[in-house]
Amino acid sequence: MTTPENKKKSKKNIIWISLFICFAIGVFVSVKIYNNYFYGNVNGNQKYLYIKSTDNYESLLAYLEKKNILIDIEKFKEAAKKMKLSESVKPGRYRLEEGMSNRTLINMIKAGNQDPVKLKFQNIRKKENFAGYLAKNMQADSLSFLKAIESDSLIKKYGFTKDNIYTMFIPNTYEIYWNISPEDFFEKMHKEYDEFWTENRKNKAKELNLSPQEVTILASIVDSEALYDKEMPIIAGLYLNRLKSNKKLQADPTVIFANNDFTVKRVTNRLLQSPSKYNTYKYAGLPPGPIMMPSIHAIDAVLDFDENDYIYMCAKEDFSGYHNFAATKEEHEANANKYRAALNQRKIFK
Q: Is residue 243 domain-resident?
């Protein structure tokens, strides 16, 4: 027979059991939520997550699995479903940190909080090389970048030519988003170009009777000639002297560029016969475009050239990288003979 006291006790037990069950369910749900959203799920195998402009939610999941980026892909899927990631997958280059939670990773992708690429370029020889460098660091391929650089509409829009468009790219360090389109990259570089060519620099170029593009073309020759920055203003002054006196520049680096053989250590008479417009032994004045991407120091060396009476230069016979400069042909021939003898002694004939 159940007494009132036993009924009371039984009721209390039911209440306690119910409370325990609710608590257990609460703990289970809390642990599940924590594991799905807040527990570290990025394993540190990859430094970056790359989401292409053509990617969708399914391809993102496939990429995460293929690259083994997550400890538990199923937990990520559960969290992504609840957070509606499939509706807002934004392309980009995202920095991953070991122990990053699903919630942090998903929010980063949804917000498009990508980590920019640091591009540092200088002394890149040709447009093709530049396009290749960009493709290694960004989403678009080299052909897409090259097409943009050589695009008639873009070249015309910014007032360049196919030959001198390469002068638009000012060598420096830039932060660029990985998924930027070649056209947008082109526009950004043009803005940087406009900022670089201040009124002060433009006025200096005008005093030389050169356009900014022509200054950069000459700077590319100066940079190719000079191993040491301190010689750049001297070399710039020399070539400006030749331009003013209507003498051919006769710059060896332009001949090497014209022959498209960058292994040349000695410019021979055969190389001087190249019909290319870049051969400054054959054609007077500046070549139609730069022979490399010159440094800012080289551009400023032209604008702030050393006023001298030099007309000739020749590499020093000690192979130090410095040059002997001369104002007369007789002086130059003496310097050139010493250098030729040094080349012969080292058996350098081409």
A: yes
